[in-house]
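Fold it.
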Amino acid sequence: MADDAHISFLPVPAPEDVPEGVTRLWAKSEEAFGFVPNVFRAQAVNGDQFLAWWNYFNLLVNKEGHLSNADRELLALVVSNVNRCTYCVISHGAALRTYTEDERTADLVAVNWRQAGLPDRESAMAAYAEKLTLHPADVVEADLEPLREVGLDDHQIMELVQVVGMFNLTNRVSSALGFVPNAEYHSQSRS
């Protein structure tokens, strides 16, 4: 495992100090990715709360839903960029590269989605995610029209809003506690 002293502002718990569900998730991550994401290790300070977060996160981001994995990672990356969340920009930039097999677009979205040449559908989703992140009190029903115009239905819109909300939460936790992205993310899905 990585140097625990440098992945969070709080001490990272040892495997023997976390609930069994956390150690199982760590083992599954190690098997699937070859490493345990630092966000999994750092949030395990409160193991049961981490598992509750993970269950909802997993449902929104990793299960088949109304949006594609690439759509959800695009939203994650736009929100994370707007919030300047280092951990999430790096990790979700890697995930977007993986799902789209498009390094250039993922790198551009990580800096400024407006310069990424996104298709109309993805641009509408990114614009909505940005507004909801920056100005939630200003969001009105009319803000859904651009999403409908590019073909999103009610189920997709609901999932989009939930994903944006999840990443705003996750960004704040990651930034507030100084989570450091795993080194593996930097080279993931690069040619």
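The chain has two domains: 11-62, 69-176.
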